[in-house]
Known about the structure:
Helix 3 runs parallel beside helix 4 (about 145-155). About 35% of the residues are buried. The strands form 2 sheets. Strands 1, 4, 5, 6, 9, 10, 11 and 12 form an 8-stranded mixed beta sheet that branches. The protein has a 4-stranded mixed beta sheet with strand order 3-2-7-8. The chain is an alpha/beta fold and about 240 residues long. It has one domain: 3-Layer(aba) Sandwich (UDP-N-acetylmuramoyl-L-alanine:D-glutamate ligase), CATH 3.40.1190.20. Mean pLDDT is about 80; it is low at about 195-243. The protein has helices at about 40-50, 60-75, 115-125, 145-155, 170-175, 185-190, and strands at about 1-5, 10-15, 30-35, 55-60, 75-80, 80, 90-95, 100-105, 130-135, 160-165, 180-185, 205-210.
Amino acid sequence: MILCVAASPSVDKLFEVGRVEIGAIHRPDGFVQVPGGKGLNVARAAHGLGAEVIATGILAGHAGRWIEEALAAEGARGQFAWVDGETRASLSVADASGRGLTEFYEKGWDIGPGGWDRLERIVREALPAAGWMTISANLPVGAPDDGYARLVAMAREVGVPVALDARDEALLLGVSAGPQVVKVNAEEATRPPGTGRRSGASRGQRRIASPPGPPSASPAGRPPPRWPGPWRAARASPWSRTP
């Protein structure tokens, strides 16, 4: 089982228009809405490829309930921490004239003093049954800077390998806890948080995978999970970016 941590989910919306014009009214040619944010995108993709997943994160309000229900309708399991407020939304507008995406990402509500503790309890309970844990996207407002580092440390205690995709302070602190795989994008690789130079945590232009040992060498001695296959990769479309 893959435990997919989506600490800051969102309702991802995509409008397709012929051409974006500043100050004009647009009537989209197409519209898509899905449970999103990087963490849930990972869970949905892995589930679609045949993997057993549990998605977890922090949800709130009507939007949070919609995400939970939409994820369940796809057949993916979810177990979420709930807080007051409303789960954020992200809007992407695809310009068919070839100018790419115009994107709007809500910051999200403050999860409050107990929100992160609730998520940690869920993760701690789910980890013993996991073969991998993924941690993806930004920390939510109100989460501790070392939140991801704490989750990585929990996983190491029970021998579960971790793949981390984060940015800024959460990335640097998370890397210091020793995940097996670290992913950064081109922007993050050339703009280390809080400095004007490249850091060891963000070396490389697209992705780095610098494990302290293979997943099969984990303290628990468990083998890596068997992934369904075969897999085929294709060039991503210019509309495939996710918040």
